[in-house]
Amino acid sequence: MASRQDEIKALNAGEALPSHRVVQLRSLGMHSIRFEFVVRLLRSSLKVDTLSIYWEQGTEFMLKPSVESLPRRLVLGRRKHVSGEFADLWLLCYPEDDEIKQLVEREIDRMVAQASEKSAQIADEE
C-alpha cells in the first residue's frame, strides 16, 4: 500500500489512483478545508452558522472516481453569501502538500476577509 506522500506525488504527476482512494482523499480534503474555514471564521469573531457552510453539489462530486479539472465551490450562505473555488487536486492533496496548503489557506483567508466585510456592511445597514 502506498503512503499518503506517494499518493500525493502520483496525483501531482498526473497519475491515476484507484477510484476508491480518490473518493477517500477528496472526502478528507473537503472536510479538512471546510473545518479550517469554520475555525478561521470563529477566530475572526464572526457569528457563524455552520449549517450554512457547504460544498456546492458536494455529495455528487465527492463520489467522482477520478481527478477532474473543474474547480469546486465552498459556500457560506444566507445573508453573508461568500464562496471560494478550490481545484479538485487541492481537495485531494490538502493538507499534506505544502504548496497546495498555502493556496488553499490563501483562498480561505480571502473568504474570511470577504465575510468580515459583508458582516460589517450588514451591521451598518441595521
Task: Describe this structure in a few short sentences.
This protein has 126 residues and is mainly alpha-helical. Helix content is 58%, strand content 12%. A hairpin with a 5-residue loop joins β2 and β3 (82-87).
Describe this protein with a few key phrases:
126 residues, mainly alpha, 58% helix, elongated, single chain, three-stranded antiparallel β-sheet
- The spatial strand order of the largest sheet comes to 1-2-3
Structural class: mainly alpha
Sequence stretches where pLDDT stays below 50 over 5 or more residues: none
The geometry reads as elongated
The level of helicity is: 55-70%
**In total, how many beta strands?**
3
End-to-end C-alpha gap: 57 Å
* Order of secondary-structure elements: HHEHEEHH
pLDDT averaged over residues: 91
Number of H- or I-type helical stretches? 5
Largest sheet: 3 strands, antiparallel
The quaternary structure here is single chain
Taking all Cα atoms into account, the compactness measure Rg is 16 Å
Hey, roughly how much beta strand do the residues contain? Answer: 5-15%
Task: Give your account of this protein's structure.
Helix 2 (19-43) packs across helix 5. The protein is elongated and about 55 Å long. The protein is built from five helices and three strands, in the order H-H-E-H-E-E-H-H. By secondary structure, it is mostly helical. It has a three-stranded antiparallel sheet.
